[in-house]
Amino acid sequence: MESETTGAGVHIFGVRHLSPGGAQHLLSFLHEVEPTAVLIEGPSDATPEIRHVINMTTKPPIAILAFTEEVPVRTALWPLALYSPEYQAMRWAEQQGAYTAFIDLPSSVVIALQDIRTKSRDSAEQSEESEVNNADEKAPEEASLYDRVAELAGELDYDMYWERNFEHNTNKGAYQEAIISFSSQMRQISEENERHNNVIEYAHNTIREAYMRRQIQDTIAAGHQPDKIVVVCGAYHAAALVDLASGMSDEEIDALPSLNTKLTLMPYTYYKLSSLSGYGAGNLAPHYYQMMWERMMNDSLEDLPNHYLSTVARYLRNTGTHRSTAEIIEAVRLAESLAALHGGSAPTLRDLRDAALTLLGRGELSVIAEALARTDIGTAIGELAEGISQTPIQDDLNRQLKRLKLERYKTPVANDLELDLRENRRVSSEEAAYLDLNRSFLFHRLRLLGIDLVNIRASGQSSATWAENWVVKWSPEVEIQVVESTLLGETIEIASAYVLQQKLDGSSTIAEASALIRTAYECGMLHQMEAGRQTLQRLAVDTRDVVQIAASIHELSLLIQYGDGRRIDTKPLIPLLEQLFRRASLFLLDASQCNDEASGEMLKAMNILNQAAIEHSEEVDELLWVQELKHLSERDDCNPRLSGVACSILLERNAMTAQQCSEEVSRRLSPGIPAELGAGWFEGMSMRNRYVLLSRLSLWEQLNEYINSLDDEEFVRALVFLRRAFSTFEPREKTMIAELLGELWGVNTEQAAEILTGELKEAEAKMIEDLNEFDFGDI
Amino acid sequence: MSQELLQDIMRLPAERLYQHELVALRKADTGKVPAGWQMSPQSVLKFIVGGKAGSTEITPKYIGNKRLIEMAIATLVTDRALLLIGEPGTAKSWLSENLSAAIYGQSGLVVQGTAGTSEEQVRYSWNYAMLLAQGPTPEALVKSPIMRAMEDGGIARFEEISRCASEVQDALISILSEKTISVPELGKEMSARKGFSIIATANTRDRGVNDMSTALKRRFNIIVLPAPADLYTEVEIVKKRVREIASSYDLQAALPADEALHKVVTIFRELRSGMTLDKKEKVKSPAGVISTAEAISLLTNSMALAASFGNGELTDEDLAAGLQGAIVKDDDKDQLVWREYLDNIMKKRGADWRGLYTACKEMN
To answer: Are residues B192 and B284 part of one domain?
Structure first.
């Protein structure tokens, strides 16, 4: 039993950091020992923050945050939930008036060491990758160790093992013993491995523990009785703190690497807490553990399964999915039966979730996914007294403004700022040469975050891609918006990447997705451009809307061509362009079976596609495009205007001979074809490059023959369409057509011009007037 | 029945096929056996997912998510009825047969759900000659498999429950909640003995044909059997089954190389999930079913092709013919899907895939 007393008599209590079971056992232990000093594993320079942590207005979850003052911003985080043993220990000490302190390495050292570890891990990974191709198939050694433990115990994962063996262990004293023996055995295995394979990790733990031992020694020296000191630390370290002999000396402390850091408390969310990973840090179901903690506190832990499943069912009912009480009862029974299958006394979270899936979800996760997330993770957001939080993102913005020489714009007066994104060749450093480009990146990111420091103005006369006009104005609201962005990320860059990712995940049309790719491009965020590419690709697979696809192609095409304007490699977008182009080509025929109203949009789309086919002829499947155009131009069941457009594109591309063209004209305009179809086709034909048309006399011969073949009534009908077709022609072009036709009719040029430029006679005017009221009958 | 006769039977029920395993498990069983069961839940689990009982090797019957099997067994322990739902070819009936064999010792009490299944097949009917001669007597009563399971405290299986008309499905409601069938003609009630349960299976593709009523669904614990979770598992399943089928039909062709297996399963998985394996690109799924069972029959078909009309070696052309048939089932849409897949995904896979790509492209 006396495993808690150490050589020096100091009580060491090992816990898992976010564990209601640990918190409960720790509290009863504290009541028993009644220490005068409670020492907690945590950054020692954060000790002054403890009074804010236990302040009445503070509501967990909160986190102690340390961050560097230089870029790149590195951070370290110590989250605390209501059920954290550390938090409960601080509260207890406050009530009993005991001394409380953090005893782990100060944050400045933690971050400096973290830096060293990341670097060595990166270089280790690089060398490994060159040897083994499949780097991602290897699981970290430590994780596999925990998985093995779970497997040996017949559990599906480590969380399940932990909950069943430790959280459910309400046996006083047994908990502490079990956790110490478990973690010391785990430690032996992993230490052995680390000593050989991961020296840095081993050294890191050694340093931390030596420092903690020194802190405990200091506390004893300050007059606390050793047996009135309780040390709360991760179970992993418990064994190493028993023997205080080798505490760190002053010289050694001075020799520790260190970076300038700031410390602050920040409100935290259960959502963030659940998405952290790694042993001890991660806590997949904070709200579930909170429910467990609350039930532990009023001695009704056996109610937890009922409560959990009822909560899920209640949420389902509130959102319109009815589930009966009988089903909840059966779910509880199933959960208990699952627990019994593993020899457990109470269902674990996994058992409860699976029971909910089977009964409440009727086998389908999608039905209950949201209800489970609400119940497991919850939506709790922590609170802190005003003014306590000094966030790294505020720091980051100020640093960026300084770096980009924008500090003088930090005034409540609106200032115009014109940016020239091109390289400034008159300056020496690269930083200065691209100053405006970097400013533009920052401004676009701020806009993305909804921070109203800047506003873009449409650039006036030139639509040049290298010029941007901004208005910069500082206000107190801006400051608040910046602080609110803390939860999104520690720096402007990280936060905007997060926001963009959220938007990408929520985008449902390819238009949205391509706009977001553009945003990523403007913000200079390469990684999100790739994510955007994937999102767009995913959405594009399901869309059959050629107009939308063409719009995306247009955006992508621009980015690919002008990408280097922002010094961003847009080549990765090319395969997507290819794919979209192929899809648009394949669905061209389908989409062309539309009415005249929709054909306007399609016409634009076809122009874009043809443009893309020309500009990216190396990449896209031009053959397919031409082939589909041919089909379209030959088909009679598609919109005649679009068939005409296809025909004129083919003419321009010389994919159609004069012979074929005249055959097509005579087929389209042959007698018997309803006038509106023939004229509609011609209208489409004339919508593109007119000079190509004007230069082909044979075409006009066919048109002439066609007009001659019409009887009077048909002629009036056709006239309406032909008039519309020619309405967009410029006067000069109209004159050219008239002259061409005049030649065919044997009228010489001067005569024709005379008639055309002359005043309208009254009768002629009336005839034209009448056309405006033409009754299209059944069209 | 003698050993030779056994070999001539096309398909043995699970309790006969794995008789020695069941015996060994019962012998080695140390757990608590629920009323009406033949062995403890832990042993049933071992029978399905494989392991060792004493010195006897237990072959895995279901490769995949072990947790689902745990949930199924835990359901039956709580005397609830079990409903297995899944795409065609996800081993629903196979699992239901093996569960019944392990828990009850026989898997033959089956009601096959069809559009023509009547209420009598769920409850009871009469031997009409005896009924006319003697009036309603217990001897004239013809019990349904479900009624026999109730009487015996065993497990009845109900296959393809969603194919039955809804009034037939409704007949199950009172059986499952009251656990009795009343026979008013005889003036008595037949109550189920402990251990009675029903394992039903239903097909997700049949959804909407005769959708199950909420009242009935509520009486089942529903477990959805997924397609195999990862490439490796699926390749293993396909490999195992193709080998078994090839030997039982005596196919005179070489077993498909691992590489060909990998390719087929990769294509199937990608089209089924609508996502490339590296999750980087989405692909369009065809309208038809592309299950693991389908991959198995594709490969055995291709083997038959190679054996009968080729040199016994599986070529890319044989595979391409099989793929075309399996993926493009009926309409033009599937054709488009397959074409886009070929050009967007397969074409870019490099030299290893070149042969198959060309063969498929020619076929398309």
So the answer is: no
Q: pLDDT tens digits for A164-196?
A: 888 887 777 778 788 878 888 888 877 777 777
Q: How far is CA A599 from CA A331, A586, A639, A644, in A?
A: 57, 17, 7, 11
- The shortest CB-CB distance from A338 to any of B74, B282, B343 is to B74
Size of interface A-B (CB pairs under 8 A): 74
Chain A residues with CB-CB distance to B271 below 8 A: none
A355 pLDDT above the threshold of 90:
yes
Do B15 and B140 have their domain in common?
yes
Taking a C-beta distance cutoff of 8 angstroms, is the pair B208, B214 a contact?
no
Per-residue exposure over A673-694, b if at least 16 CB sit within 10 Å of its own CB, e if not: bebbbbbbbbbbbbbbebebbb
Question: End-to-end CA distance of chain A, in Å?
Answer: 96
A654 pLDDT band, cuts 50/70/90, is: confident
- Please tell me whether residue A641 adopts helix, strand or coil conformation: helix
What is the value of pTM for the model shown?
A: 0.70
Please check whether residues B315 and B241 belong to one and the same domain: yes
CATH number, domain with residue B144:
3.40.50.300
Distance CA A747, CA A739 (A): 8
Residue type, A134: N
Higher pLDDT, A557 or A771: A557
The pair phi, psi for residue A82, each rounded to 5°, is -55, -35
Contacts of A326 in chain B (CB under 8 A): 218
- Looking at per-residue pLDDT, the higher value among B134 and A543 belongs to B134
Q: Among B196, B224, B252, give the residue marking a domain's end.
A: B224
Task: Check whether residue B24 and residue B164 sit in a common domain.
Answer: yes
Q: Name the token pair of B125.
A: 């009917």
| Structural domain for B299, as ranges | 231-363
* Per-residue pLDDT at A363: 86
pLDDT in tens, A72-85: 777 788 889 999 99
- Domain co-membership, B138 together with B247: no
- Report yes or no: A542 at the B interface, CB cutoff 8 Å: yes
Q: Do A363 and B224 touch (CB under 8 A)?
A: yes
**Contact assessment for residue A510 and residue A549, using Cβ atoms and an 8 Å cutoff:** yes
Q: Are residues B188 and B243 in the same domain?
A: no
Residues of A in contact with B348 (CB under 8 A): 575
The predicted-structure confidence for A234-270, as pLDDT tens digits, reads as follows 888 888 888 777 788 888 888 888 888 888 888 788 8
Considering only the beta carbons, identify the residue of A334, A579, A583 that sits closest to B78.
Answer: A334
**B170 and B282 belong to one structural domain:** no
Q: How many CA atoms lie within 13 A of A712 on its CB side?
A: 0
Which pLDDT score, from 0 to 100, does residue B334 have?
A: 82
pLDDT digits (tens, 9 = 90+) for B75-119: 999 888 999 998 887 888 889 999 999 999 999 999 998 888 898
B162 and B241 belong to one structural domain: no
| Phi, psi values for residue B219, rounded to 5° | -90, 0
